[in-house]
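Everyone, carefully examine this protein record:
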Amino acid sequence: MIHPAPPIINLEKVQLRLGTVDFALNLQVLPGKITAITGVSGSGKSTLLNLIAGFERPETGRVLINNTDVSGHTPAQRPVSLVFQDHNLFAHLDIATNIGLGIHPSLRLSLADRQAIGDALQRVGLAGYEKRLPATLSGGEKQRVAFARALVRRKPILLLDEPFAALDPGLRASMADLLKALHRETANSVLIVTHHLSDVERLADDVIFMDRGNIILHCDQAAFFRDNHTEALKKFRQS
């Protein structure tokens, strides 16, 4: 008998209050999937990501990663990489140095580390960009640098918070294709926050739909697009 893989992420009875929103979250994410987190603005998508990353802490309940309770761990202590919407690049540092910060914040980089930076840039289509400054790059190129930095960290979980929000439709599609290609190479677990149904359709194996701090649906992509009964989801599709 083939037993299903245990969840890589497990939120057990997690509760917290932010502003006027009360969060009550139970969640299990299986490894090796791309999971889209979607819903209207203010539904709690980024908060869910921040709970997994460690930028928010539950008031009650536990966050487990690989069956280890990380509720009290800092973001740096968790086996995750986070790609922000704004790329989070330092303008005064060249691209190689920005990526190197993902390996060692002290920038004490070995020859193997520098080789890994070059390899990551090649994989995202930016070979030879090591000495360029962020200001000389397009939005899509900056996002590729952010992906390269996540690659060199070699973490099993990749979290992306609206990573394509500032890109035009053509670049969105290109970056989504890159993300899928990198996912196939690394077999990591990816959670991506988006309010674009096109991203969900293009990328997701599974979908988490949130409303007012709660997970209303957690299902595979096909079931998500078949659902015609969930009122909050019907309103979201019409928005």
Residues 169-186 form the longest helix (18 residues). The mean pLDDT is 89. The chain is about 35% helix and 25% strand.
